[in-house]
Amino acid sequence: MTADIDPVLHAPARLQIAAMLARVDDAEFAIIKDVVEVSDSVLSKHLSALSEAAYITVRKAKRDGRQRTWVSLTPKGRKAFAAHMKALHELVAAAQHAVAAE
Q1: Residues 56, 50: contact at Cβ < 8 Å?
Q2: Which pTM was predicted?
Q3: Shortest CA distance to 18 belongs to which of 10, 37, 89?
Q4: 23 partner at 20 to 30 Å CA-CA among 58, 67, 84, 100?
Q5: For residues 83 and 101, what is the distance between their CA atoms, to the nearest angstrom?
């Protein structure tokens, strides 16, 4: 394999978050929470890990009289996600090749 699995993105919830954010400009915290099916505190921890790696930006804004949180992938995050997906594809291809050779 030539590509490396990214330990920041390897956690299933973080991978789901990155996959979701790769398709949109940004997403609201509540929507991400519903899609990933985790609690507020668990999502916050995953977002903190992604933010510390500079893979996402988090912005807060008032909307409909409430404070809301919006999350988006940074260019670094998009690049890391693409590289991680490449590594996963290579891993699957190698496994399929090994199984087919048996």
Answers
A1: yes
A2: 0.87
A3: 10
A4: 67
A5: 27
Domain segments of the chain: what residues? 7-101
**pLDDT score, position 2:** 57
First to last CA, the chain: 20
Taking the C-alpha atoms of residue 45 and residue 29, their distance in angstroms, rounded to an integer, is 12
CA angle 90, 94, 99 (to 5 degrees): 150
What is each CA distance from 64 to 33, 60, 71, in whole angstroms? 19, 13, 18
Tokens of 12: 């299933």
State the pLDDT at residue 97: 75
Quickly list H helices, 11-71.
12-22, 29-36, 40-52
Fold of 7-101: Arc Repressor Mutant, subunit A (1.10.10)
* Partners of 67 in the β-ladder: 62
Question: Within the chain, which residues score under 50 in pLDDT?
Answer: none
